[in-house]
Amino acid sequence: MSAVLSAKGLVMRFGGIVATNNVSIDLQKGARHALIGPNGAGKTTLVNILTGVLRPSEGNILLDGQDITGLAPHQRVQRGMVRTFQINQLFDSMTPLQTLALVVAQRRGLGGKWWQPVGSDAGVAARAGELLEQFRLAEVATQPTRQLAYGKRRLLEIAIALACEPRVLLLDEPVAGVPAGEREELLQTVAALPADVSVLLIEHDMDLVFSFANRMTVLVNGTLLTEGSPEEIAADPRVKEVYLGHGCGHDTPQGTDIQNG
Amino acid sequence: MDAQRYQAALRAGARPRLWEFVLWALAFAAPLVLPQHALMVNEIAIVALFAVSLDLILGYTGIVSLGHAGFFGFGAYVAALFAKHVMPDPTVGLLVAMAATAVLGAVASLTILRGSDLTRLMVTLGTALLLLELANKLDWLTGGADGLQGVVLGPVLGLFDFDLYGRTAAWYSLSVFLLLFVLMRRIVHSPFGATLMAIRDNRLRASAIGIPVVSRLAVVYTVAAAIAGAAGALLSQTTGFASLDVLAFDRSADVLLMLVIGGIGWLYGGIAGAIVFKVLQDSLSSITPQYWMFWIGLILVLLVLVGRDRLLRPQTWFRREKGAKA
Questions:
Q1: A1-80+166-261 maps to which CATH number?
Q2: Can you say how many angstroms the Cα of residue B104 is from the centroid of all Cα atoms in its chain?
Q3: Cys-Cys crosslink for A82: which of A104, A164, B85, B326, Cβ 3.0 to 4.6 Å?
Q4: Closest chain A residue by Cα to residue B186
Q5: CB nearest B205 (choices: A91, A111, A141)
Q6: b/e per residue, B84-111, with b = 16+ CB within 10 A?
Q7: Do B14 and A72 count as a contact with CB atoms less than 8 A apart?
Q8: How many whole angstroms separate alpha carbon A201 and alpha carbon A84?
């Protein structure tokens, strides 16, 4: 079985600190792979390495067998590896409609067109509309993004990633900070992601992780502790030990491992 | 909403409005209706073009610059030198000046790709100062502090001679302005323009949706430089003169003030700001030739403290702002 995304022996050093220590991870086609670990385990650092925000000190990353270790973030996106962010990263002055139309146009190679207006391509507008409906953003489609409720912003965050038509999607804590009332909506959209997209989910919410993932990787102190099926992970005494005293999952405080994980 | 409604909503912003046609018609009528102010119209058209070119990088892309006059002045000198030594045709001179400034802009764009706003302010300021000092030192070429004199331009398109009252000059500048304005208007409403705004709003996310941020910044900086160079070329061509003040820091600061007055990120802000600034400068300096900067300063402070929207609505001045914090 060949992996869509394959990272081998990743090491990330910040000065004397080793944030990621010899981590390897394989993502199969259509995988629902969860990456878990206590705060500060290096989950977000790993995502930043995979997406090209950080250049690893050692190791390499293969996408469809091609080495992408040296590519810039936007080049990896063009090859189908897309992420969402733990903290929303949106275009606040644009509306959700404008945002998604832009992303779709960029994905279709129209981002360099400078003479025709954005709405001139019917296909782009139609696809943006589909995404708005799918992510239940239709009624706020023409409001400036900065005015949207947090749950809607979170949906837009994920809709942007999906508009990039990813083959590999890295979800960095998609339900982080979403109020209970808006949570269900978000969980449904995560569950409804296209089956052929390989998803790597980073999440503290163990309910979501165990209902979503068919494979799990546990990261502790920048090191890969174990990898296996959800049943194996749930039964692993080392995983329990790591989480004991750390307050397993449900209400782990957010925002402590934003960029430096 | 169905797909067509989405498409219509997307296109709505790009559609030209009636008032835009009225505004341009008025501008072109001005040299005819107010022949005594034709020189003023010419000057406003030139600084407005300059201000709009800055809006392209500042308002739409979020690149702050304190050295935009570097491109303006470079274009002015290239056009003047070209007319003096090579060929007096204004259109060819304009294109040559734009091409030369574009090259300069492309090289200078390397300095603004990384770093914070503060770094960019310093780097752009430094670049403009370098150009100013170069123009000062190369006096065999530029005339140094005396300015470049003896620039004589041929008729526009071989048909329209520049007249003493500045009417040909005003129409020439307005025509070039209109052409370049339409170009910029198309750019900001295109997918390319949307990617610029995405970079302005959130550079991290822009690259995470596949936008090549660095190349976009370089391209827009080059385009803005070329257009600023065109504005400079118009100035030296219509005045038949290029002096060091085209490169001076004041000019970079003034154009920034015009954008602050008119508002950034909607192109017409540059035009509104240029009109207000030039008319204020003209009327204030005729009242108090020495202290007009004082009044400009006062107006700016008021503008920023009170806010542009409230300043334009006197009825709200003595009312408490809705939702104002105590």
A1: 3.40.50.300
A2: 17
A3: A164
A4: A115
A5: A91
A6: beeeebbeebbebbbebbbebbbebbeb
A7: no
A8: 10
| Complex confidence, ipTM | 0.86
Could you tell me if A242 and A221 are in contact, meaning their C-beta atoms sit under 8 angstroms apart?
Answer: no
- The pTM of the full predicted model, rounded to 2 decimals, is 0.89
* B128-182 pLDDT tens trace: 999 999 999 998 988 888 888 888 888 888 888 888 788 999 999 999 999 999 9
Q: pLDDT tens digits for B196-219?
A: 999 999 999 999 999 999 999 999
State the average pLDDT for chain B: 90
d(CA B202, CA B38): 43
- B194 contacts in chain A (CB < 8 Å): 94, 98, 101-102, 105, 111, 118
Q: Where are the domains of chain A?
A: 1-80+166-261, 92-165
Q: Angle CA(B76)–CA(B77)–CA(B78) in degrees, nearest 5?
A: 95
Structure token pair of residue B283: 């009327």
Nearest to B245, CA basis, from B122, B145, B130: B145
State how far the Cα of A24 lies from the Cα of A8, in Å rounded to an integer: 4
A60: DSSP letter: E
DSSP β-bridge partners for residue A32: A199
Chain A: residue nearest B196 by CA? Answer: A111
Query: Quick check: A42 and A221 in contact, CB under 8 A?
Result: yes
Give contacts of A72 with chain B, Cβ < 8 Å. Answer: 207, 212
C-alpha A120/C-alpha B189 separation (Å) is 10
The helix (H) or strand (E) run that includes residue A109 is none
